[in-house]
């Protein structure tokens, strides 16, 4: 329904929904006045350095500032400079969370969920997490460094989201995407998308390999009953999608292992036709 889609189309609605249902997320406040937003940034007792256009902005409506001055400049660009058009008429100012960011998706029939393997995409344009956010510069899946107990907590977050939408009379049916920050206090939701993520979906689909799984996707689709099944994986495999600046795509299917706190891969180029997440 249109109201269920507000989980993505309105960040202000999404944050209020999370607060109502006890879903962990960053501290926040929404504003329609840029001066009030800047006053909040300067007075908050936490680093209120994340500025988001509340509406849909093609993945480019988020600014992560290093200082209060940068955060206020982002507010002015979005609200007065109309950088995001009408999507920026309301902004959400959030606490800056520290940790590893991952993407967690599930199928849902409005009641039960089936989780997909976690993925990680890299949005910033330049190496070293520098430059503006893009629709996605690359991704890989799964993430062996995420402990099982953390995955259980994330599954609970997704289930509580589906339960909350049902309780509010707007059952969510389809694919639910949660952007998660793995903080020292546990996983916290950064945002929801009401769709597959790009480029995450492309790498998830390559490691989710079984006839049963693909039958679920292509024949039952998101309207079938997931029945709580988990997505089977090709053991030891990882898929990565690298979007190059010349807009060519290099896809690799690899063996992955965990060494000295880093993911190591031994990859070969794949001929699979994957599409870059660039506008």
Automatic annotation (TrEMBL):
- Record keywords: Protease included? no
Pathway as given in its UniProt record: Purine metabolism; IMP biosynthesis via de novo pathway; N(1)-(5-phospho-D-ribosyl)glycinamide from 5-phospho-alpha-D-ribose 1-diphosphate: step 2/2
Cite the EC number: 6.3.4.13
BP-aspect Gene Ontology terms: purine nucleobase biosynthetic process; purine nucleotide biosynthetic process
**Tagged with keyword NAD:** no
- List the InterPro entries: ATP-grasp (IPR011761), ATP_grasp_subdomain_1 (IPR013815), PRibGlycinamid_synth_ATP-grasp (IPR020561), PRibGlycinamide_synth (IPR000115), PRibGlycinamide_synth_CS (IPR020559)
**GO MF annotation list:** ATP binding; metal ion binding; phosphoribosylamine-glycine ligase activity
Top EC class per UniProt?
ligase
Please provide the record's keywords in A-Z order.
ATP-binding, Ligase, Manganese, Metal-binding, Nucleotide-binding, Purine biosynthesis
SUPFAM superfamilies assigned: Glutathione synthetase ATP-binding domain-like
PANTHER family linked: PHOSPHORIBOSYLAMINE--GLYCINE LIGASE, PHOSPHORIBOSYLAMINE--GLYCINE LIGASE, CHLOROPLASTIC
| Protein known as | phosphoribosylamine--glycine ligase
């Amino acid at each position: 329904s249109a109201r269920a889609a507000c989980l993505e189309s309105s960040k202000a609605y999404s944050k209020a929904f999370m607060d109502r249902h006890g879903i962990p997320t960053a501290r926040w406040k929404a504003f329609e006045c840029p001066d009030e937003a800047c006053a909040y940034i300067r007075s908050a007792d936490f680093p209120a350095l994340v500025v988001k256009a509340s509406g849909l902005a093609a993945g480019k409506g988020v600014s992560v500032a290093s200082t209060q001055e940068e955060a206020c400049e982002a507010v002015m660009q979005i609200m007065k400079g109309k950088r995001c058009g009408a999507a920026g008429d309301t902004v959400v100012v959030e606490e800056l969370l520290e940790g590893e960011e991952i993407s967690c998706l599930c199928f849902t029939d409005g009641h039960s969920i089936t989780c997909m393997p976690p993925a990680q995409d890299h949005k910033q344009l330049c190496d070293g997490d520098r430059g503006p956010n893009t629709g996605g510069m690359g991704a890989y899946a799964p993430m062996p460094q995420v402990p099982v107990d953390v995955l259980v907590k994330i599954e609970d977050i997704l289930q509580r989201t589906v339960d909350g939408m049902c309780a509010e009379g707007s059952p969510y049916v389809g694919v639910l995407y949660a952007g998660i920050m793995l903080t020292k206090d546990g996983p916290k939701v950064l945002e929801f998308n009401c769709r597959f993520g790009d480029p995450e979906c492309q790498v998830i689909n390559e490691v989710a390999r079984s006839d049963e799984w693909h039958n679920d996707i292509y024949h039952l689709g998101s309207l079938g009953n997931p029945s709580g099944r988990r997505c089977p994986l090709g053991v030891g495999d990882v898929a990565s999608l690298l979007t190059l600046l010349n807009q060519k795509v290099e896809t690799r299917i690899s063996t992955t292992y965990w060494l000295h706190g880093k993911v190591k891969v031994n990859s070969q180029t794949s001929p699979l036709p994957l599409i870059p997440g660039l506008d």
